[in-house]
Amino acid sequence: MNYSLPCAAFIIAILLHVSSGLWSSSQVLYPQRIAQSSYGYLLIQMPTNTTITGRKCRRMSSFFCLLGYRYTKRQSDRIGNLMDQNVFEAMIKERYRAYNWFSYYRPAFGGCCQFQKQQYVILGQNYGVGPVEYFGKVTDFSVLNKRLSYVSARYDTESGFNHIMKIGFGNAALVIEGEFKNRRRFIFPIVRRVRRVRKFNKATIGYALTFTWFKRFFICRDQPWMCRGGAWI
Predict the structure, then answer these.
(1) Beta partners for 163?
(2) Which of 90, 166, 216, 220 is the most exposed place for a label (fewest CB within 10 A)?
């Protein structure tokens, strides 16, 4: 059963900008004008042993954990209310497992719905987005209108690579942040059943790391229902 809710949009050309230097904490790449109002991206945690959220994610999945949909600008003047959380909980409580959107809080660790409601309030309601609209965004895993928009990475001295901790795909300008080295390549933490580790250069990661590839090699391995009948294309 396919739960995704595709969102039609246009993708505008990318202007590449490469910053120099060895260490970086936060960089905005590929500034662009986009013919849409809903600037944002799906925010995904990778299972790792180097961060608290990464370790929690790894207890629930070997491939990915959804953290929510992050907007980069306010969407409307809508004022939220307490009923919003109840509406959102009613929609997500039966489907959170289908999207690997697990709670990080006890006593519902790995379940629902305190964490998910908090993420909606912080990332959605505070940006003028209602529960129904946010649910549509956070459960849209179609590849349409999704380019690399966010990378959080940390340099690993043992491997000599920048390890990707969190990643985001959407229609926002690409931001790369964390304690990474500019001249080192980026890789995903090694996960089970994935033999080859693909390496990405900082100068080309914006168009080389596509959501189609990420979905096929990470999301589809954990949630194959999203990819049946060519749904990953």
Answers:
(1) 154, 187
(2) 90
Name the phi and psi angles at 81, rounded to 5: -145, 170
Query: In a structure prediction context, what are the per-residue pLDDT tens digits for the chain, which is 233 residues long?
Result: 444 444 333 333 333 333 333 455 556 544 333 334 579 999 999 999 888 999 999 999 999 999 999 999 999 999 999 999 999 999 999 999 999 999 988 777 889 999 999 999 999 999 999 999 999 999 999 999 999 999 999 999 988 999 999 999 999 999 999 999 999 999 998 765 455 688 999 999 999 999 999 999 999 999 999 998 655 44
Q: What H or E segment, with its residue span, contains residue 45? A: strand 40-45
Distance, in Å, from the CA atom of 199 to the CA atom of 205, rounded to the nearest integer, reads 9
CB 151 within 8 A of CB 166: yes
Q: At the top level of CATH, which class does the domain 23-227 belong to? A: alpha beta
- In 6-110, which ranges are continuous DSSP H helix? 52-60, 82-92
Q: What is the domain partition of the chain in residue ranges?
A: 23-227
